[in-house]
């Protein structure tokens, strides 16, 4: 591989994006601490919201923690890939035996680079495209799970909302039924106490609905930001790799009359446009040949008719050449 081309592109690690993620998580933690009983102004808002439905809210927080760890890992896996590429570029060992083990993210790319380096040549355009396609596919597959976690948090929040609303509706129906069965024979104080006791269940259902929505939507917001940062780290590595590979990819050349012209493989749209232009040129050439053949056939037929008419009618007298002198006249 050409070393002069290796220095033209600088690979950046995911450190900056991971720092952004940590700062964002620290801000979220500060907000949660401010709303907790441990803050300078103690409040039980988050604790009471969590206790409204411990099972569902606990599941939401567990999924949130899983998503945070996964997105941090997605950003961190770019670091070993950048280190391996830099080691490959800076290595002076022709056998490449001292290179570290390539990470799974660039496993296919590392094998193709090593094979091309052993042959002492540059990468072909097909190899470069295969490397970029393989890396892009692995990056997209990794981000699918992060998007699923974000959608799962929204689903759990909506599930808790409808769960709480069902509890509210059923509890209100029971309260109304108990008041109707009591009738008007009791005292007013007993009816009020019965109404207050009956409203505890609907209020508990409302707590479940709003608390699960709060945790679910907040968790989806957190995972969405982390997914953006992890995606930017991976896309930055993909862009740097594409720029570097473009410098070590050979182009197809052809020579004509001593001049060498570079012929790069175009896009499918360009190839289709070129084929259409060639087809139009061939059609025009065929039409021109057909017209020329038709005109030539008409000229030949006209000459044949004129020759036949001349043979039938005879040659005119004035056009008949004089007969040669007889040898007897000279005697």
List keywords for this structure.
331 residues, mainly alpha, two-stranded antiparallel ribbon, 10 helices, elongated, disordered N terminus, disordered C terminus
Assembly status = single chain
Low-confidence stretches: 1-5, 253-266, 326-331
Structural class: mainly alpha
Instruction: Count the DSSP helices.
Output: 10
Shape: elongated
Our Rg estimate from Cα atoms comes to 43 Å
Work out the count of structural domains: 2
Strand content: under 5%
For the largest beta-sheet, the strand count, sense and barrel status come to: 2 strands, antiparallel
End-to-end Cα distance: 105 Å
Q: How many extended strands?
A: 2
Q: What order do the SSEs take from the amino end to the carboxyl end, as H and E?
A: HHHHHHHHHEEH
Strand order of the largest sheet: 1-2
The averaged pLDDT comes out at: 77
Helical residue percent band = over 70%
Question: Could you walk me through the main structural features you see in this protein, from its secondary elements to its overall organization?
Answer:
- The chain is mainly alpha-helical.
- It folds into 2 domains: 208 residues, no CATH class; 44 residues.
- 73% of the residues lie in helices and 3% in strands.
- A two-stranded antiparallel sheet has the order 1-2.
- β1 and β2 form a beta hairpin.
- α4 packs parallel to α9 and α7 runs antiparallel to α9.
- 20% of the residues are buried.
- The N terminus and C terminus are likely disordered.
